[in-house]
Amino acid sequence: MKDGFIKVGAGRINTTVADTVSNVAEILSLIDIAEKDGVKLLALPELCLSGASCGALFYNDTLLKGSIDALLKIKEATANKDITVIVGLPLLYLGKLYNCAAVLNKGEIIGIVPGNEESDIFTSFADEISSITILNEVLPFGDQLVFRCTALQNFSFTVTVGKSYTQLENANINVNICADIEIVESAEMRKTLIKADSYRNICATVYASCGEGESTTDFVYSGHLIICERGKILKENTPLDDTKLIVSEIDVSMLSSERAKAGFDCSFGEEFCLFFNCAVTDTALTRYIAKNPFVPKEKEKINLRAQKVLDIQSSGLIKRILHTNAKSVVIGISGGLDSTLALLVAAKAMDKIGRSRRDIIAISMPCFGTTSRTKSNAEILCRKLGVTFKEISIANSVKQHFKDIGHDINDHDLTFENAQARERTQLLMDMAGKTGGFVIGTGDLSELALGWATYNGDHMSMYSVNCSVPKTLIRAIVRYCAEKESKLSEVLLDIVDTPVSPELLPADERGEIAQKTEDLVGPYELHDFFIYYYCRFGFSISKIYRLAVYALGDIYDKDTIKKWLINFAKRFITQQFKRSCSPDGVKVGSVSFSPRQDIYMPSDAAFTLFKKEAENL
User: Fold this and answer.
1) Which residues contact 31 (CB under 8 A, 6 or more apart)?
2) Which residues of the chain have a pLDDT value below 50?
3) Which residue in 165, 446, 171, 439 sits closest to 326, CA to CA?
4) C-alpha–C-alpha distance, residues 156 and 146, integer Å
5) pLDDT (0 to 100) of residue 267
6) Distance, CA of 109 to CA of 111 (rounded, Å)
7) What stretches of 298-386 show up as alpha helix (H) in DSSP?
């Protein structure tokens, strides 16, 4: 339960139809396995105590009594177990037969949830009754019950019985126990419905359907088990296989935070809320955590995302070109990743509106730190794309500026670096004015997060096409373009392989890049991971550290992760003043720093609290 992770399980047994003694023995064995695996919430299928395919036997007193006896055995067996279990059984009450789910915790039945689907056998629940007497106990009874953990309020769940995949609004987890049959394409349809519902309701779904052992007189039961969190399948089995239990971890703290942001009404009446106990323990993670959360794992999905981002970026740029009646767009081209993507986007935009690519003015502005590799790549790319290319050295201008302000050119301090960045921006702005156009900014989301830009230098433009694209995704998009455009392949792949650098310090003795950004501020792979969980979900420093060690621990040691996480948090908090006045730019993903739409935070927030948490990792 540490950091809001709850280990849950969805299980099924090899059912023996109408044999509650055999079924309860298998269920108890499965509960033991789940508890040893650290599961805190276990969902078992609809009517698993009796078997779902009993038909007319459900009316038989012997089967009904056997189901109650089986429930009593589970109640007694779970008295000393730290696990909450949901089992399905038939219940006859006040002359009506109900298809029910019993919720058991620490030797107590804490509530009974009836199904609300009408069938030839079972009665649909109507809210005229709110309690039911079982084993001489009066128990809460209804389909609106919410179960909430006393030790962790975010650990809350509802239960639905049958094919209704819908979720009550006031809980983070929906346990759906079913007796779904398996026919061609039913599994994919089932997954689609569960994913869509959990995404729409910002919840998790633990789904368990009965399968092996049920009667096959008319059809086969699926035995499908699914654990889904906000539209993403965390774990599932293949229908009709022999899997008895699947386990994963649900992040209930994240779900609770996201539901609050979305304005969900999570209030509940006392008559519907039932509390249960659960010990607070560390939860060992087994779920998949992406190393690069902004970049899909599968090649096909990477290509789809790259194309989508390019379409969004170019569409935004087209609107700005048409609205301003711009005769040109001006880009500072360095031979690096960011300016390369901006140039590709500009070319795509001009193609879409039938304008000549010559209306794109790409300017290379070499100075003290420019290397032959980046300079050459910039020119080659521009020539191959057919844009207007200009090379204008800023060295003399910067030297004159140093002379004007009395700065020693041999002093390679921040002034030495920033003067070059600002001179480049001034040149671009003036060229845009001269040609009746505007400057396209090239800075990306990762740089904005870190404040890795010179204020009123590369920080400024008239329109920023990369402002919500993280560095790891930019690299993937440029690589995609290299694979798609054979004539650009060689130069784009070399740009991808070039170390990221602002090239503001002189090259080394071999003429190669001396100032490597990732040596100074940390690996962008780590920073993009931090950005995703810090900015997208608002996770604590300690939780991000734990996830980073889990996902990236095979690449970076703990000390390295801690070092750059502290650096990230400090830079993110202290560099807000740059983001507060950032230029317009189109949003492409779930994380964006637009001061107009996406992020509002003070420029003078203290870092003290975050630093203390980080240092105690």
Assistant:
1) 42, 74, 77, 78, 81, 83, 85
2) none
3) 439
4) 7
5) 65
6) 6
7) 299-324, 337-352, 372-385
Provide the pairing of β-strand 328-332 with 437-441. parallel
Distances (CA, A) of 302 to 230, 307, 443: 21, 9, 21
User: Which residues are within 8 A (CB) of 79 and not within 5 positions of it... i.e. 6 or more apart?
Assistant: 106, 107
Q: List the beta bridge partners of residue 137.
A: 134
Give the contacts of 477 (CB within 8 A, at least 6 positions apart).
Answer: 306, 309, 310, 341, 469
Backbone φ and ψ for 367, nearest 5 degrees, come out as -150, -150
276 beta partners: 149
Instruction: Name the maximum alpha-carbon separation found in the chain.
Output: 100
pLDDT tens per residue, range 337-349: 999 999 999 999 9
pLDDT at 170: 78
Could you give phi then psi for residue 316, rounded to 5 degrees? -65, -40
Residue for token pair 């590799």: 373
What was the pLDDT predicted at 505? 76
Could you identify the residue written with the tokens 């190669």? 512
What is 421-473 written as a DSSP string?
HHHHHHHHHHHHHHHTEEEEE---HHHHHHT-S-TTTTT--SEETTTT--HHH
3-state DSSP helix/strand/coil % of the chain, to nearest 5: 40, 20, 40
Q: How many residues in the chain? A: 617
Q: For residue 234, which amino acid is it?
A: L
Pairing type for strands 5-11 and 41-43 reads parallel
User: Shortest CA distance to 279 belongs to which of 152, 154, 148?
Assistant: 152
Q: Say which residues have a Cβ less than 8 Å from residue 74's Cβ, sequence separation at least 6.
A: 24, 27, 28, 31, 85, 87, 104
DSSP 90: E
Residue bearing tokens 């039932």: 274
- Which residue in 341, 363, 296 sits closest to 496, CA to CA? 341
Instruction: Check residue 198 and give its pLDDT.
Output: 93
Burial 247-263 (b: 16+ CB within 10 A, else e): bbbbbbbbbbbbbeeee
CA distances from 572 to 119, 216, 471, 575 (A): 58, 60, 16, 6
d(CA 466, CA 582): 12
CA 334 to chain centre: 32
Residue 215 in tokens? 């009667």
The secondary element (H helix, E strand) that includes residue 208 is strand 204-209
- What 3-state DSSP class applies to 614? helix
CA distances from 399 to 408, 419, 508 (A): 9, 9, 20
- The pTM assigned to this predicted structure is 0.91
Distances (CA, A) of 413 to 161, 410, 436, 504, 586: 68, 9, 36, 10, 34
